[in-house]
Specification:
single chain, about 130 residues, alpha+beta, C8orf32 fold, 5-stranded antiparallel sheet, 7 strands, about 20% helix, globular
């Protein structure tokens, strides 16, 4: 995780959602999705089970991607873009093999209308007495 930012830099808008890890690495810059794909490639080369994760970070206001790796019987989250271990500031929305398994926007649109999308997550604490079980 620590090596990737030495050869790769964050560049908003430099890559698209269908960019491969290989192309992004050759470009030398990209976004969180690219950092995650490069990390996934490295982990899988070493035969470490790994998955792509999409979610939110506290205070970020946009979707974010990171990686989880299975080590010593547990899944650990690695935010390669921010060089952090994933903690309670992160909210996982979905995970899969890569970004194709976890689209933030998916569907078809037909017609002349205009569509806008936003995403948000609300976290609330509740007591055991409020539990649905």
């Amino acid at each position: 995780m620590r090596h990737i930012p030495q050869v790769f830099r964050y560049g908003p808008g430099t890559t698209g959602i269908h960019e491969t890890a290989e192309n992004a690495l050759a470009l030398g810059q990209g976004v969180c999705q690219d950092y995650a794909h490069i990390m996934l490639s490295l982990l899988r080369t070493e035969r470490i089970p790994a998955r792509y994760v999409v979610g939110m970070m506290m205070g970020d206001g946009a979707s974010h991607a990171w990686v989880e790796a299975f080590c010593k019987g547990f899944w650990y989250g690695f935010d390669v873009t921010n060089q952090k271990l994933v903690n309670d500031e992160y909210i996982k929305v979905s995970c899969g093999r890569d970004s194709e398994d976890c689209p933030v926007i998916k569907g078809n649109f037909f017609g002349d209308g205009i569509q806008h999308q936003s995403e948000s997550v609300t976290v609330e604490e509740f007591s055991q007495q409020d539990s649905p079980e």
